[in-house]
Amino acid sequence: MKRRAQRDDGAARSEGVSPSMSRRRAMTCLAWAGGGILWTLEGGVPRGMSLGGVAASAAQTASGAVSGNTLSFVQISDSHIGFNKAPNPDPAATLQSAIERIRGAAQRPAFMLHTGDVSHLSRPEEFDIAQQIVNGAGLETYYVPGEHDVIGDDGRAFFARFSSVSSVSSVSRISRIAPDDRSTGWYSFDQQGVHFIALVNVLNLKPGGMGYLGDTQLAWLAADLKGRTHSTPLVVFAHMPLWSVYPAWGWGTDDGDRALALLRPFGSVTVLNGHIHQTLQKVEGNVRLQTAMSTAFPQPAPGDGPGPGPLKVEASQLGRTLGIRRVDFTSLDGAPSLGDATLAS
């Protein structure tokens, strides 16, 4: 499992990713880095806003971009607590920096999503440190595991800590749970008319490190969506991309197309994930798939170099590579606009 986790630290070209993606371009994307994405949903329309600082957030609030009856939440990913090599021997410090930005936002989000790889090697002390720092945001936090979180025990320790009912302060908002409670890892809940779905695609990985959902989880997803009107906005979050970013490096989900087939009938679907430590976007009709930055270290662009793994950058540049992508959805079927912020900004 450890070898598999190490193998999964990478990227390359595929459908949906610019074939001209180069390391230079990747670094440009990574320069959008920051600590997390502040997502807002206003009238059912998801928007992503920069957490680049209090001033920026205050300006957005002042301009009316986030006001009134809105739902705002934050996404962070790939904190990799326990990683101790170049380019970031102290990922706890960069996670702390991200959390401080979230705490400092003028528009307080309702909750936070962590899209996996909370730890680097699934050690209890790594989970302890991560949980303590994340809790500092003072936000209810919903987790899904990354492949680094399920090493050795298929995620039992992770699920016991981060997916137990006791970890969620407002349990009543979880309208649907997996058949045998949240210990299975996948679940859903509703917030202000938006349906959130947490998927687990890091167990039983396929050859090459591709993610896998499995028949049981897909059947649960179909049942969860059944009876919902197609006008219900959906936000799906998982660790590995549901789309094939670069299968040669295991950057995708082997049966992700089966999940997307269930999601496509809905008018507004936003899929959030981590794993590849950089911002990429793919739009398929009403489905928008968005990868997120890490708070720990960058990865190479898909296919750029011998394989996946931490991308070494100068210490002075690290803050510019950990980042955030701002995404503003102006209409349910419109193209999103992107913004940026970095831990260095």
UniProtKB/TrEMBL annotation:
InterPro entries per record: Calcineurin-like_PHP, Metallo-depent_PP-like, STPP_CPPED1
Pro residues compositional bias, start-end: 299-309
Domain Calcineurin-like phosphoesterase: 72-278
Superkingdom to which the source organism belongs: Bacteria
Region (Disordered): 1-20, 295-314
Signal peptide: none
Bias kind Basic and acidic residues: ranges: 1-12
Protein name (database record): Metallophosphoesterase
Native source species: Pandoraea vervacti
